[in-house]
Specification:
DUF4082 domain-containing protein, about 190 residues, single chain, 7-stranded antiparallel β-sheet, Jelly Rolls, globular, 15 strands
Length: about 190
């Protein structure tokens, strides 16, 4: 009887110690076979955002970028409702069209609360090309769910400074800039 209790206790500890797999919802969705194509655009400067929420409690541990040109890009996590900046990171991307992720202080996310991850299209004071994603018919493909992350829509504002991307909101047929984050569910 003592042995059975010990086995159950050890099994329970092992299940709790299992790490949840990390999720990169935006890039995972965009690399899947789903009819979404990527192309570059040149204009700006823009603060290009993606509105998202999570279905499980967890934390963001990295921010990243995938831009068509090398550069140092500012990536920000915002609270959608308050428009408060929660985390910011400058991401050095040394190769074109390559996802680069870098660690940030963990940010706990609440279930079903909306956040925005954004990237600025300017690097060192120069407007850079940015990627946009759309499907072949140019119809809406958002919202979409990838893992524990629900991507609601895209948003943006013309700005070179850290500004909440709230001028144009609820865009569901294109995704801009391709910022990324690593989410680890609890």
């Amino acid at each position: 009887m003592v042995l059975t209790g010990l086995v159950l206790s050890v099994t329970s500890c092992k299940e709790k110690d299992k790490a949840s797999p990390s999720e990169n919802a935006i890039s995972t969705f965009l690399t899947a076979e789903n009819g979404i194509t990527l192309a570059p655009r040149t204009s700006g400067p823009w603060e290009l955002g993606v509105v998202f929420s999570v279905s499980k409690a967890g934390k963001i541990t990295q921010l990243g970028s995938k831009m068509p040109d090398p550069g140092i890009y500012r990536v920000i996590i915002w609270d959608f409702e308050t428009k408060q900046l929660l985390r910011q990171k400058s991401i050095e991307q040394t190769a074109p069209d390559q996802l680069v992720l870098d660690g940030v202080e963990s940010l706990e996310l609440a279930v079903n609360k909306r956040y925005v991850v954004s990237i600025n299209s300017q690097s060192a004071g120069t407007n850079k090309r940015y990627l946009f994603a759309r499907n072949a018919t140019s119809t809406g493909f958002m919202p979409f769910t990838q893992g524990s992350v629900l991507v609601h829509s895209a948003c943006y504002i013309g700005a070179s400074t850290a500004t909440f991307p709230g001028t144009v909101t609820n865009v569901q047929n294109e995704l801009y800039g391709l910022p990324e984050f690593t989410f680890i569910p609890d």
